[in-house]
Amino acid sequence: MNKPTNINLAGNSPASRDVAFHMHPYTNPAQLAAAGPHIIAKGDGVFVHDDSGNRFYEGMSGLWCASLGFSEPELVNAAIAQFNKLPFYHSFAGKTVDPAIELAEMLITNAPPAGGGSHMSKVFFAASGSEANDTAMKMVWYYNAALGRPEKRKIISRKKGYHGVTMAAASMTALAYAQDGFGLPLDFVKHTTAPDYYNGAHAGESEEAFASRCAAELEDLILAEGPDTVAALFAEPVMGAGGVIIPPAGYFAKIRAVLEKYDVLLVADEVICGFGRTGNMWGSQTMDVRPDMLTCAKALSSAYLPISAVMMSDKVYAPLAEQAERLGVFGHGYTYSAHPVCAAVALRAQQLMQERDVIGHVRSVAPSFAGHVAAMEQYDFIGNVRSIGLIGAMEFAADKHSHKKFDASQKIAAQAVAIIQKHGVILRALPGDIIGFCPPLIISKAELDDMFGRIHDAMSEVAELAAKLR
Ligand SMILES: Cc1ncc(COP(=O)(O)O)c(C=O)c1O
Q: Which CATH number does 38-71+358-469 carry?
């Protein structure tokens, strides 16, 4: 038997074995080799514990996902029960399983209002947010081909948008770190202005005028590309990984008017915003998006198992179904579409959201969260703070008044995250020297107070760093 060539690198510790054998996602390999991995050993409510016994607030719910915390026994029990009953079956060729039937009905029943006064009527299951977005893109193409206009297939997303990492999704993810080195984006994906008022507004421009300009720039792009070639805009209601960018009031109504004018579909990427994060079931409700299609994942199952979904209104579904009938099959699907155990856990997660009125809880603690996030503005190196529901951010500025940034190569936000972690809170640095906050939706007011107290405790060291880097 061939011995792996790197076997000798492996010491006996889990950390050295990890460095030897495991290629991590979104990780700098040299840094990993130098520092070793951070091994997370167990979860407990809004906390995780590492293998040295240190306890951390998971201030990002992992990757904006573990909304019901890290130790919900009801979800574990739902998985075990389904494993014992039927651990796998597929949904190809008309097969299905009970939890998928119930979950689909629940999602459609609770869907947000769709475009043109219509409502979501069908749901398609996949396993990740990236797959859901790739699926939605293929459905958009299939839809336009069905309507006899196969050349209408260009996709628009917004600069700083995050939509995943598969080839199509990474092309829509308009962030350099997801495209550099891969020869992406693919050429049919175009990017328009992000609704980032803090960084993008002209001097003296009101929020309303800025939102109108975003819509005008979208229209300019559609006209430049040719409306007959533009199929859809994919947009997060609140942009997450690109910096927790909350669009100005009225933004989506203006965007929608442009899309309707050129018969371009609107796909809401609810992978972060869905399931209570913004204080409503959907970010589309909070931001009045009214999409034709919607993708969701993450908190669908509180991230306990991988499952995602694409929802579509009848306007989209009817031509898809007719085309599939003409072609003999809808030729798309994943082995794990509507996986019974994933569906059972997602169903239980959604039932728990209702039984425990988790969205009511989010609304009750959101003012406290907003107050804590707003208080970060007291630091002279924090230029902007923002939040909605239980998602927020603080953005560093070398000069608060001119919004001048720190030198990006100094990575002040990433360094601050490391300092804050020493005080028992895991957060995440986002491009543009922004730190995101996205705690589990079950966090209590007392836990929020303690978590932000720890962040303040870390800020004197962050202030020293900021003074050095200015
Ligand atoms: C808005 C959004 N869409 C899509 C994705 C991709 O999801 P996944 O990592 O499950 O493929 C993410 C992941 O963070 C996301 O934030």
A: 3.90.1150.10
